[in-house]
Structures are given as structure tokens and as C-alpha cells.
């Protein structure tokens, strides 16, 4: 009986406003058969520091966060602050 723990990023989504959602799965396997799986999710906002993120998350953020996306996101955040 060999137990194994696998952790992987299994989903990366880009929302309309530029927010990037990341999902990480942790699987516990016994002799190659999955016994359990759990998920951890987090979000990243345009222009956020992503230096501590996995390489593939960084690549997607860098591709998605164009100057236009960043300026639109910042304008939305400023408008939300004024409305609060």
C-alpha cells in the first residue's frame, strides 16, 4: 500500500474584468487510486505582484493583463471607491 500526495494547478480562468482565478487540486492516492481530492482557490487582480505564483499562472496573467485591461480595471476600482 503506497500513499501518494499530488498537488497541481488544474484550472485558471480569466474573468471579464481581468481578475484571474486559480484553482489548485490536492489528491491523495493509494496505489494509483484516488482516495480524496480537495481544492484551494485564489484570485489575482490586474497589476498585482505575481512573482510568487507558479510559472504557468504568471504566463497567463502576463498575457491577459494588457495595458487596456489594467487601465479599465483601475478605473472600475476607482469608481467603486467613489460609490462606496
3D architecture notes:
It is a single chain. The protein is of the alpha+beta class. The chain has one domain (3-83). It contains 2 helices and 3 strands; from the N terminus they run E-E-E-H-H. A 3-stranded antiparallel beta sheet has the order 1-2-3. Strand 2 and strand 3 form a beta hairpin. The termini are far apart.
Elements, N to C (H/E) = EEEHH
Beta-sheet strand percentage?
35-45%
Query: Could you name the ranges where pLDDT drops below 50 across 5 or more consecutive residues?
Result: none
Number of strand segments = 3
Q: What is the CA-atom radius of gyration, in angstroms?
A: 17 Å
The total of helices stands at: 2
Tell me the major beta sheet: 3 strands, antiparallel
End-to-end Cα distance: 57 Å
Derived from helix and strand composition plus strand pairing, the structural class reads alpha+beta
Query: What gross morphology would you assign?
Result: elongated
How is the largest sheet built, in terms of strand order?
1-2-3
* Average pLDDT rating: 95
Domains (count):
1
State the helicity in percent bands. 25-40%
